[in-house]
Specification:
2 domains, 182 residues, mainly alpha, Arc Repressor Mutant, subunit A, three-stranded antiparallel beta sheet, 8 helices
């Protein structure tokens, strides 16, 4: 499942016909690159691909002066079906996230204890910094009619998951320090 495909189709469904730039701008107001694994530069390619597949259609193309042509896209009935299928697939079919860190944990006993402690402390410090940045970003994120209220729930979920991971890291650091692990 492509997060970009779901996001773009969802924006077009909710906002109506839009230029690719307006789709990008909408996703930027949601800070989607932070939590949806979407590269803003891929939006135009994805729109072109979805147009070929009949999921979106070109409503118009206009050009003002020397600026590049701007194409307005609209979601099709087929696109609405694809959006609903992708959306329900994510809700009803939880996907396990494969994290290479889990693999590294499997072999923690092959690292010298001092290096393992340093690596765990580094991860904890990095996570603390990331959580601080996320909290500041959420506080500074514009609240109001422009951004849907449920977008802030994404930040809240990310912070809570990060705090749980940090708590786990701190416990493991203690166990390694007391020689209970590995």
């Amino acid at each position: 499942m492509s997060s970009a495909r779901l996001m773009i189709l969802g924006v077009l469904r909710g906002k109506g016909p839009l230029h690719g730039y307006d789709v990008r701008r909408e996703l930027e107001t949601w800070d989607a690159a932070q939590w949806a694994n979407i590269a803003y530069g891929s939006i135009y390619f994805a729109l072109g691909k979805m147009a070929e597949e009949g999921l979106v259609e070109v409503v118009s193309t206009d050009q003002t002066g020397p600026r590049p042509a701007r194409t307005v896209y609209s979601i099709t009935q087929k696109g609405i079906g694809e959006f609903e299928s992708l959306l329900r697939g994510v809700w009803w079919k939880p996907k396990e996230v494969s994290d290479p860190f889990h693999v590294a944990l499997t072999f923690m006993n092959y690292m010298p204890p001092d290096e393992l402690l340093s690596a765990l402390r580094f991860r904890a410090d990095s996570l603390r910094a990331t959580l601080g940045a996320m909290k500041r970003m959420d506080e500074q994120h514009p609240k109001g009619p422009v951004t849907p209220r449920h977008i802030s729930e994404i930040f809240r979920l990310e912070v809570m998951q990060g705090e749980a991971a940090l708590q786990w890291l701190e416990e493991v650091i203690g166990k390694v320090g007391r020689k209970e692990l590995p």
